[in-house]
């Protein structure tokens, strides 16, 4: 390893033993413009807490080559990685790689274990990937640095700390990466977004226009030529048989481009035929009855949506992911003497309807 890079690694280990956390070390290195490790197209060009954690746990730095920790097997046309049996893992000493002495290495590993959160008594011991549970986290992007909007803490009147929307660029990497240290209460932002949608997007006239689009689309479907359900079932049977044979061929021979392409074509055709089959089973009278039910409930549901978006963050998140497929942009703005988030984005409401309007909070 290059001596300059080795000194950076040694400093990271020293900073960690001095009490700095992963994000704290990343902020220090970003502030000092220390060149980060290269990560190809995946890299952000900055130090991150995940990169620091990986470096603190990399046995290569104490002169140890580890081989066979992960087994990669081909399954279902792709490769699946599984943890190998510890008895099969090989460890080979490489003294010329060593830049961290054993005492420092083991002190750091002990410190990592001691700082790790303790599992609750009800924990099953199974590790699962954390899921985003807040309405706008990582749907929003900071206009200044382009990184995701996440959730932090801020103080409100009375000194109480509440959850707030913050730029993860500033929060995790420091102001060398993003100067926007804005933190606005999450409940305030969620309510402003829901109110804006109620007043300017999900209006009665807009919902009425969407219903008319659905009417028009269904009318075209009903007036066009329709095949008998039996014909569709026969074609589906043939396609699924071909799909099965192609899947076996891909699994046995590997990801041959032609086979994969043919398999995708069959999958797409099957998906379309299954939709056509559902439509064929519905009589025109059934469809007209469904349209009448939609008309009767759509306006009421739209009016109820505002309160639901605030009271059910996980449900709101699913709604926002569909409504704003291109995400939302968070920009720093002023509201009187306060610094607040101004939020803008394009709402996709239907095949021909989209609105763009900033929701300044």
> In percent, how helical is the residue content?
40-55%
Secondary structure tally: strands: 13
Oligomer: single chain
Our count of helices gives 11
Q: From the alpha carbons, calculate the radius of gyration and give it in angstroms.
A: 28 Å
Order of helices and strands: HHHEEEEHEEEHEHHHHHHEEEEE
Low-pLDDT stretches are: 121-130, 351-361
**Class by helix and strand content?**
alpha+beta
How far apart lie the N and C ends?
A: 50 Å
Strand content: 15-25%
Characterize the biggest β-sheet: 4 strands, mixed
Mean pLDDT: 77
How would the global form be characterised?
Answer: flat
The spatial strand order of the largest sheet comes to: 5-9-10-13
Q: Total domains, how many?
A: 3
Write the layout of secondary structure elements.
Layout: H1 3-17, H2 22-31, H3 49-56, E1 64-67, E2 70-75, E3 78-83, E4 90-93, H4 102-115, E5 140-142, E6 149-155, E7 161-167, H5 168-173, E8 183-185, H6 186-201, H7 204-223, H8 229-253, H9 257-281, H10 284-311, H11 313-323, E9 328-335, E10 338-344, E11 346-348, E12 354-356, E13 359-360
Parallel strand pairs: 5-9
Antiparallel strand pairs: 1-4, 2-3, 6-7, 7-8, 9-10, 10-13, 11-12
